[in-house]
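Running co-folding for zinc ion.
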Amino acid sequence: MPITNPKPNFDDIYMELAINLAKRSHCIKAQVGAVLARDTRIISIGYNGPPAETHNCDEEFPLTGCPRDSKGSCSLALHAEQNAILYAVKNGSKIEGSTLYVTLAPCISCARVIYTMKISKVIFLDSYAAYKGIGVEEGAEFLKTFGVEVEQYGVGAGGAVL
Ligand SMILES: [Zn+2]
Ligand SMILES: [Zn+2]
């Protein structure tokens, strides 16, 4: 047997980073991390939470949880994808053609932003539909319909169980 020295690929490295970033989230219900990479280099990172210097849900609402919007999500938080994209925009990074790694499949509202920013590919870890208990992976479906490549990490193109 030849001695092999397998190197981690960028998908593994960036998804692992996204998983670690999710742990920084102060939201109580969902903790999501995102990494935005272009040409194998990281251009931004993000995790879900209210805008900087506004609220920390876990510290302010430890008993009641985050204030909810009509869909049952935290009403204060920017999503991980939004935070990653906004930081890249603020810093003038070129986002077009980038790949977004995210620990939860994008919601429809993030999907609209991802599409508009011309991000070419989204790799997600967990199903948003399963998390929300809804029948369809609406964000991923929207992106695929309009030509953005979407795959579930560890499953491959399209994801097996959408
Ligand atoms: Zn929250
Ligand atoms: Zn979202």
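Result summary
Residues 27, 57, 66, 74, 76-77 surround zinc ion (ligand 1) (CB under 6 Å).
The radius of gyration is 16 Å.
Job closed.
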